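Tip: read the tokens left to right.
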């Protein structure tokens, strides 16, 4: 065998999943996503009903404070909420299809956190008061001191899931 052949043959073949395995991964993704969406929406309903007129101070400079975010993460991109909403929908759909190429349940779990977080914030953009399609504000209410922006459970899912995927995905 010459050198050119050994270079091309050195990478392992991708493992083909059976249709049942692909279905199982998709169900895992959707289940994790649905749990994140449910917790996110329940906590946002609580925040809107409880934090409307007051802030609760917590330990180590943390607090619960209601914020209506019409931008993206860290309240950047004010007014571009519909663009971020469409991107979140596209990414969520893509995750459903690419999950069949993912190795390991932990990575699928991380992708489910990302998908659930993205869709949790899209729900706010769709159904909260606002102007036009996906013009509603995302409800943020968790604050950790002055050094980190106010966020929500969906945001936490996106960040934790993204870190899991980055750390647990195989490297070539």
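Filled-in amino acids:
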């Amino acid at each position: 065998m010459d050198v050119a052949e050994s270079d091309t043959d050195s990478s392992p073949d991708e493992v083909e999943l059976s249709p049942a395995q692909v279905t199982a991964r998709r169900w895992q993704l959707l289940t994790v996503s649905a749990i994140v969406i449910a917790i996110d929406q329940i906590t946002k309903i609580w925040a809107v009903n409880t934090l409307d007129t007051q802030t609760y101070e917590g330990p180590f400079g943390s607090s619960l404070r209601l914020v209506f975010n019409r931008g993206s993460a860290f309240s950047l991109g004010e007014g571009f909420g519909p663009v971020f909403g469409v991107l979140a929908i596209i990414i969520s759909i893509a995750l459903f299809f690419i999950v069949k190429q993912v190795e390991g349940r932990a990575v699928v779990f991380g992708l489910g956190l990302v998908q659930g977080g993205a869709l949790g914030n899209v729900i706010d953009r769709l159904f909260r008061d606002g102007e036009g399609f996906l013009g509603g504000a995302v409800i943020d209410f968790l604050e950790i001191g002055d050094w980190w922006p106010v966020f929500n459970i969906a945001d936490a899912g996106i960040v934790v899931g993204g870190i899991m995927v980055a750390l647990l995905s195989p490297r070539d």
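The chain has a mean pLDDT of 86. Residues 110 and 161 are 4 Å apart (CA to CA).
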